[in-house]
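Hey,
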Amino acid sequence: MRIPRKLELSLLRTRTLFIFFSLFPFLTTVQEETFWNSSDDDMFPKARIKRLTSSSHSTGYWSFVQPISPSFDESPPTNITTQLGQTVYLNCAVNNLGDKTVSWIRRRDLHLLTVGTETYINEDRFSSAHIEGSQDWPLMIKYPQTTDAGIYECQVSSDPKITFLVQLNIVVPKAEILGPHPMYVKIGSSINLTCVISESPEPPMFVFWYHNKRMVNYDKEGGEISLQKASDDSAISTLYIKNAQPTDSGNYTCGPSNAEATSISVFFLDGENPAAIQRDTSASLSSSNSHHDRCVTFVAIVSWALLR
């Protein structure tokens, strides 16, 4: 059956309008995009590409305007060793802090130490060493004790909170004079005493040497004294006496500023037999004690006679 001419034209017109209105949003976008790219030779392909990627541009825009969350700079050390009494800084660098705050917490007892630049512990040894405008929020601990060793937490008040952990180690320097104890030397030879200060990340500010109870650091006849760093955690101090004489015998003490003092006894040989000098010393002490006893007895007798 043949379709009437008028009905055929009406169906064709309806189909055309349907196709036009289906493509209208796309054509509108293409027109706007081609307006901004009117200088290009091939406008329609470029407009179509922009239409297809418009959603990605929108997503990128919103991600750009969203605030950037704080994050830690991973460069500061997370394991720090210091010696007893030596001021130490625990560093915590924060990027994009914004209006958030930085706090320090001692993990051992969960004690809040600082918030921002304010201190929240009744010990002035703990404080914030932050410099305005800096991204670093260091915790300063003055005169650290062995009980201060442990883990410390740097926390940022973001949502969710982020934390940066630092392990603090406290070492106690020790001093030791090398060589046999006691030391035996010959008359006219040299005395060379070496004092090693170990577990000392920072070298001592000074080392005092004593001969018996007399300090010899500033004594021209007391010998030559030196102090130098031996490694990352040790230092060496030496006392050198040339052409030693019997008057140089006795007790020598090495007293570093950051460690307990240590001592050594020096004796002179009688020939090649160290026992001889020990016997002579014992005899001398015995004689001295005998003389002391006689003096005490004499004083007692005189006192008794006067009181009669």
